[in-house]
Amino acid sequence: METITIKDIARALNLSTSTVSRALRNSYEINNETKKLVLEYAEKMNYRPNPIALSLRDSKSKSIGVIIPEIANNFFSQLINGIESIAYNMGYHVVIFQSHESYEREVANTNYLVSRKVDGLLVSLSSLTRDLTHFEELLDKGMPIVFIDRVPKNIDTHKIVVDNFFGSYQATEHLIKTGRRRIAHLTSPFYLSITMERLAGYRQALEDNGIPFDESYVKYCHHGGMMLTENETAVQELLNLPEPPDAIFTASDRLTTSCMSVLIQKNVKIPEEMALVGFTNTSVAELFNPPLTTVVQPAIDMGHQATELLIRLIEHPKKPTIFETRSLQTSLIIRDSTVEKSVNA
Amino acid sequence: METITIKDIARALNLSTSTVSRALRNSYEINNETKKLVLEYAEKMNYRPNPIALSLRDSKSKSIGVIIPEIANNFFSQLINGIESIAYNMGYHVVIFQSHESYEREVANTNYLVSRKVDGLLVSLSSLTRDLTHFEELLDKGMPIVFIDRVPKNIDTHKIVVDNFFGSYQATEHLIKTGRRRIAHLTSPFYLSITMERLAGYRQALEDNGIPFDESYVKYCHHGGMMLTENETAVQELLNLPEPPDAIFTASDRLTTSCMSVLIQKNVKIPEEMALVGFTNTSVAELFNPPLTTVVQPAIDMGHQATELLIRLIEHPKKPTIFETRSLQTSLIIRDSTVEKSVNA
Questions:
Q1: Does the keyword field hold DNA-binding (chains A, B) (predicted)?
Q2: In whole angstroms, what is the distance from residue A262 CA to residue A260 CA?
Q3: Which of A118, B51, B295, B327 is the most exposed place for a label (fewest CB within 10 A)?
């Protein structure tokens, strides 16, 4: 689609560009007849204001900062696409930063974004962030922040999460229904909101099905999957247990692929010897050997909703009395990595 | 690792923070003895200046803008990690933007980054960019720009590329050596530098092995892989040829995974009926069914080198008389998707 500019409108209507520009921003210097002419033509031609021009006009920078742990993670890259599609349509730029699961970098990114005068922040916490002062101070100063997915419990602002408990419950129950009894859980640091919720769902599903919870089947990877050796050690420890698991439920993207790699290296047959379910938005789950059963988060929709809430905070600066925490549903997509045990036994 | 701040140094040496700060930046207001004390202590404690503080002190913003087509592409996400590791160590922030393979967005991103006063740009062109005025104007104004991977032929600045010709030649020759004769090539728009070079390597390998080049075996996807239906149609057209190919060499990340998806859907057996080599940095090639033979680009090293060149341009603003184009080598990683034909026949 061709983009129509102010110049094009001016040429078509035989007006100066400055007249068109002032008419579009409803300036008192332009008479109503001209305004009507310009606005109708602009609408007909599907004119979209240029975000740069907008930002020069307003005092706002018309930009949103995004701080996420890692872009090379399918959930986060899809989330960013959701954020960008709404932001772009509403005339905002999106500035992306990675924390690389480091608290120090998260703080540095936050400070930089504030120094560059972004209008608001969308944040998913790094797995090593326990002190939240850098965000609390900003909120106190009136900076709009919306948290996504990995959210702080004790900060009062809008949050977009998924129903991690249910997603995890459903995955674990599926493993039980397909005949697994020794179900391990490979997850991120215990203090992350998503870890606690996913662990609780896993535990509840076990207990509801008469399987006692066994702490030795739970492995925490403190770098959230970023350190391959840590992930590999965790999987190896599970394989070395006196009664090794017959299924592993992995709680994130990288944990899932690392786990699958180790199982393949060790010639552990999936799903015959070990079923596998991953909490991952990988776009290539069906290309895997075997195709992988996944718990998928509505990442694009989460990006949309978080961005809409953030822009609402930016454009209506009166502090809302109630902040929302929206919890979206995950989907369990069943593939061959969890085929019924009896079929293979 | 704990970060030591100016405050910590001041406390330890019983000086004011402003004295420490001025000593660290070698101010004439501070005597040499104090300077020595502060510098030695800072070195001992591994003090690293905070990029924010640096940017407030210098007139520079201490930030680098990166414009790439898409972060959800393994090559680009690895490239960004290479960029960030050097930039961070040299005290620069990295601001990431996606063009989504759109010329319009690439121009908008460029304008925004310039309006936010970044010190330089690292760019990989969108697949729909043919007009380069937005970059030419910036270079004329003295903005340092280094292009990576998808580079413009007629702009004179530093460029980091890979030897696409050789990478492509090697992949095609490997397919010929494993017994394939009807080798198709699925690629991006013909006018991109990487497309032309990869096509030339493919063509040369065919001709050097006595296989005539056949245009009907080459499919161009004008959205560079972003439009799944376009990729799928291209693969389907290859399968519908009177003499369908016995191998497909795909020229990018998404083209590779789309192609593999279609082949699986259509029950085309890989590698028995169709061998597959992908020009992709996917981190999960060995998890695929079958594990995928890939041509891998040294993405992290490309990021390192491009960032070093850019920071040199930023910090030594005298225009160099000669710009470099560095060409790095790709690696062919052979996996089961190209197992010898005779073994399977």
A1: yes
A2: 6
A3: B327
Does the CB of A57 have a partner CB in chain B at under 8 Å? no
Asked whether the beta carbons of residue B104 and residue A80 sit closer than 8 angstroms, the reply is no
Chain B hits for A288, CB-CB cut-off 8 Å, are 284, 287-289
Query: Is B63-162+299-329 a CATH 1.10.3670.10 domain?
Result: no
In the block, residue with structure tokens 């970044």 = B118
At B31, list the tokens. Answer: 């005597």
How high is the pLDDT of residue A57? 42
Of A116, A232, A253, which to mutate for an interface test with B (greatest number of B Cβ within 10 Å)?
Answer: A116
| Tens-digit pLDDT profile for residues B13-57 | 888 888 888 787 766 678 888 888 888 888 777 776 654 444 444
Residue of B nearest to A264 (CA): B287
The residues of chain A that CATH labels 3.40.50.2300 are: 63-162+299-328, 164-297+332-344
Query: Looking at residue B21, what is its pLDDT?
Result: 80
Domain A63-162+299-328 is classified in which CATH homologous superfamily?
A: Response regulator (3.40.50.2300)
Cβ distance of B108 and A50 shorter than 8 Å: yes
Phi, psi of A13, rounded to the nearest 5 degrees: -100, 0
What is the rounded CA–CA span in Å between residue A53 and residue B208?
A: 55
Q: How far apart are CA A236 and CA A225, in angstroms?
A: 15
A115: closest chain B residue by CA: B52
d(CA A157, CA A143): 11
Indicate the SS3 state at residue A277. Answer: strand
The ranges of chain B annotated as CATH 1.10.260.40 are 6-48
* CB A217, CB A182: distance < 8 Å: yes
Assembly ipTM: 0.75
CATH topology of domain B6-48: 434 Repressor (Amino-terminal Domain) (1.10.260)
Cβ contact B287–A261 (<8 Å): yes
Q: How far apart are CA A140 and CA A144, in angstroms?
A: 10
Higher-scoring residue by pLDDT: B170, A45: B170
The pLDDT of residue A227: 80
- When mean pLDDT is compared across A240-254, B251-265, B308-322, the lowest value belongs to B308-322
In chain B, which residues fall in CATH 3.40.50.2300? 63-162+299-329, 164-297+332-344
Least Cα separation, residue B74 to chain A (angstroms): 7
- Locate tokens 């040299």: which residue? B90
pLDDT in tens, B117-169: 899 999 999 988 888 999 998 888 889 999 999 999 889 999 999 999 999 99
Q: Tally helices (H) and strands (E) across chain B.
A: 13, 12
CA distance B275 to B169: 16
Residues in chain A where the model's pLDDT stays below 70? 1-3, 26-28, 48-60, 342-345
Compare CB distances from B288 to A51, A78, A289 and report the shortest one's residue: A289
- CATH number of this structure's domain A164-297+332-344: 3.40.50.2300
Selecting from B84, B96, B289 the residue whose C-beta is nearest the C-beta of A289 gives B289
| Structure tokens, A123 | 């944040």
What is the distance in angstroms between the Cα of B148 and the nearest Cα belonging to chain A?
A: 19
In the three-class reduction of DSSP (H, G, I as helix; E, B as strand; rest coil), residue B145 is classed as strand
Three-state secondary structure call for residue A148? strand
